[in-house]
Amino acid sequence: MKNRVAAGIDIGGTNSVFGLVDENGKILVRDTLLTSDYPDPQELVHALSAKIDTALLQCGKNVELVGAGIGAPNGNYFSGCIEYAPNLKWEGLIPLAEYFADDLDCRTILTNDANAAAIGEMLFGGAKGMKDFLFITLGTGLGSGIVVNGEMVYGHDGMAGELGHTIIIPGGRLCGCGRNGCLETYCSATGIRKTYLEKSGKKDSVKIDSKYIFELAKGGNESALEAFRLTGDLLGFALANSVAYTSPAAIFLFGGLALAGELIFEPTRKSFESNLLKVYKGKVQILPSQLAESDAAILGAASLVWKETLSPVYPHEN
Q1: For residue 48, which of 159, 168, 181, 199 sits 20 to 30 Å off, Cα-Cα?
Q2: Residues 211 and 272 in one domain
Q3: Do residues 109 and 256 both lie within one domain?
Q4: Same-domain check for residues 195 and 236
C-alpha cells in the first residue's frame, strides 16, 4: 500500500511555498520560489508543479499524491479562483485550482490563506476536537477563519469571514479595501506601527516595525506599551462582538503580532471579557495558535485535502 501525501501550496505576494504532507501532519519535503519572478500566474503554476513532481520522486515510488490544497489571498473555495487579490500583481480572476489540476493531474482545492490555516489548526493544532472556533491571523493585515459545527464558513459566494474588514472606528484610518476604519488598520503589524507613531510623535522610519515596537515595549517604553494596550483593547472589543454570531469554544491568534505574547494577549483578553454578553462570559478562551509559524501555511493548505479526502462531494471536480 502506498503512502499518501497531499501537496500544501501557499501563494504569497513575495514568496510561494509548498510542502508534501502526510496524514499525520508531517512535512516530508518543502521548497519555495519568488512569486514576483512570475508575472504570468500559469508560469508560476508550471514552476511549482515541476518542483512538486521532483519532490515526489525524492520521496520514492511508494508515495501517492492524493490532492493539492492551495492557500492564497482572496482565494474563492467555490470557484477555485483568486479574485482581485490586492497584494498580487495578477489582475482579475485567476483560475488557479484549474491550472494546478491540469499540471498535477489531481484534485485541487483553493481557499484564502487564513481559512487554510484555520483548517490546519483544526487538524494538526490546538483546535483538535473543537467544532466551533475562530482563527485570527495578525500579520500585515488581519485575516480570519470561522469554523462552525466542524465546517469552515464560506458564505453563499465563498468570501465569508472577513473580520479584518469590519469597521471598528467609523471614519477612521484608510484601509487598503478603500473604506475607512477597518479592524485591520488598527489590529495588525501595520496597525500597531501606525498607533506607535501617533503615540510617540516619531517620524516614519523603515526601522520602525512591529518587532521594533515589541522590543521597546519589553524595555518599558510607554509609547510602545500604549500601542499594545490600544491594539489589544480594539481587538478584544471586536472579538467580543464576533462571539455573538457563532459562540465559539475558543479563538486562536496567529502571526507575528501574536508572538508578542502577553503584551497583546493580556489587553485583548481584558477587553474581550469586559465587552462580552453576560451569557458568554468565562466560556470562550483566547489562545495562541499551536501551529509553528514556519509550518502553518503548508500545513493549512495540505489540510484542505486531508479534511475532504474522504468526502464524495468537492467544491470543483478536476
Answers
A1: 159
A2: yes
A3: no
A4: yes
Phi and psi at 34, nearest 5°, equal: -85, 120
Element (H, E) at 20: strand 15-21
Three-state secondary-structure class, residue 100? helix
How far from chain centre, in Å, is Cα 120? 10
CATH classification at residue 64: 3.30.420.40
Per-residue model confidence as pLDDT tens digits over 207-252: 999 999 999 999 999 999 999 999 999 999 999 999 999 999 999 9
108 in helix, strand or coil?
strand
Residues 235 and 149 in one domain: yes
- Domain enclosing residue 226, as ranges: 126-288
Cell 489571498 identifies what position? Answer: 73
Q: Decide if pLDDT at 41 tops 80.
A: yes
Q: Are residues 222 and 253 in the same domain?
A: yes
Whether residue 53 is contained in a domain is answered as yes
- Over range 68-84, report the average pLDDT: 95
Q: How many helices and strands in the chain, by DSSP H and E?
A: 8, 12
DSSP structure string for 125-182? STTTT-SSEEEEEESSSEEEEEEETTEE---SSS----GGGSBSSTT-SBPTTS-BSB
Residue 190, H or E segment = helix 189-200
Band of pLDDT at residue 87, cut at 50, 70 and 90: confident
Angle between helices 262-275 and 222-246 (to 10 degrees): 50
Q: Does residue 161 share a domain with residue 38?
A: no
Contact 128, 178 (CB under 8 A): no
Give residues with Cβ within 8 angstroms of 183, minimum separation 6. Answer: 142, 163, 164, 165, 166, 167, 168, 234, 235, 238
Count structural domains, the chain: 2
Q: What is the pLDDT of residue 61?
A: 81
DSSP-assigned letter for residue 202: P
